[in-house]
Amino acid sequence: MIKEVPEPEEKDGSEKIYRNGRERWVDTEMKNFIINLDESNSEQLNEIIGHIDFGLIINIDPYGNYHKQISRSEENPLGNLIFDAIRYNGETDISIMFAGGIRADLLKGNITYKSIL
Predict the structure, then answer these.
(1) 95 neighbors 81 (Cβ within 8 angstroms)
(2) Over 80: is that where the pLDDT of 64 sits?
(3) Were both Cys, which of 4, 56, 86, 99 would link to 95 (CB 3.0–4.6 Å)?
């Protein structure tokens, strides 16, 4: 789903928000649609489907540079988990995905459908 759009030429229907210290433009109608989707599916989205005892972090590299996604440049545990799941569910020997598709850390603790999305 699209949550962000570039700064629009026409500002009608868009609003400026700040996320992660950065200015973003969002389409107000789409933002409200997503909020409604989250609210109407919150019971299922918040269902606990697993637990991990350590975080699977992709947004930090070994040298401490934050906001650098290691999933774009090297093998990592979260990528291995995702690719193993794809292989298992697809009953295949290999799986291929573009590196930019892994964008968020999976933090220590309970795993919900929402955290996977």
Answers:
(1) no
(2) no
(3) 86
